[in-house]
Specification:
The protein contains eight helices and eight strands, in the order E-H-E-H-E-H-E-H-E-H-E-H-E-H-E-H. The chain has 231 residues and is of the alpha/beta class.
């Protein structure tokens, strides 16, 4: 699993969250943004994510998971490697479609909102989207603390009550440590609405593809044409 930024603290938080999955190796990128919160960050992170994905295939891993809701480098990685590649945004949104009809996404800062709308349009899921709400917490501020849980709860409950969302998707993998507590808060409000953790969704999606012996289409993701490329 590839942590999409250069933050050591974020990398370690991802490792803590996944310590119950010893078969998942969590690695990071060494160049790029310290967090991914806008289109610019997405572009800066993508080439380094693809490089790590290529190395993962050489190291004979079964699959690659990109731990970012924006899915940076996802399509490019599928072009250059043959093992399954999943990412948090695509995986969690498709999973949400099997859990409800109106998806509420709760994300980090306001800069992330247009990126998520772009992602949703690209997946053809605009008709299923109820809302995208920002907590105003940056990626590197997220953890399992009461402050994070309360911020997520406030926007999630508004998405359900005001925007009529019937499934909540967390719009950042840094929210994984707070996902279980958020689900409890929603249930405590007498609302039977599921919360999709995008980090776990992407891992489970990858596991399913490996078990089913499936990988991405070479018609949809043809190998890049051979040419000289300067980094």
């Amino acid at each position: 699993m590839i942590s999409p930024n250069t933050s050591r603290d974020f990398l370690e938080s991802q490792r803590r969250e996944l310590r119950d999955l010893p078969y998942v190796e969590v690695v990071g990128i060494t160049k790029g943004p310290e967090s991914v919160e806008c289109f610019y960050d997405d572009v800066l992170a993508s080439p380094h994510i693809v490089e790590v994905a290529e190395q993962a295939e050489r190291d004979r891993f079964d699959a690659v998971v990109i731990s970012c809701f924006f899915d940076p480098g996802l399509k490019a990685a599928r072009e250059v490697i043959s093992i399954p590649v999943t990412s948090a945004g695509e995986s969690s949104l498709h999973m949400a479609c099997s859990l409800g009809e109106r998806i509420g996404i709760v994300t980090t800062v306001s800069n992330s909102v247009p990126v998520i709308h772009h992602l949703v349009r690209g997946l053809g899921l605009e008709s299923r989207l109820a809302t995208v709400r920002a907590t105003s917490l940056g990626v590197l501020e997220l953890d399992g603390s009461e402050n994070t849980v309360n911020a997520l709860s406030k926007e999630s409950l508004s998405a359900i009550k005001e925007d009529k969302a019937d499934v909540i998707v967390l719009g950042c993998t840094g929210m994984a440590e707070a996902a279980a507590a958020l689900q409890e808060k929603i249930r405590a409000a007498n609302l039977d609405v599921p919360v999709v953790d995008p980090l776990r969704a992407a891992i489970e999606w990858a596991e399913a593809l490996v078990k089913l012996k499936l990988r991405h289409s070479r018609v949809g993701y043809p190998s890049p044409p051979k040419k000289r490329r300067t980094a």
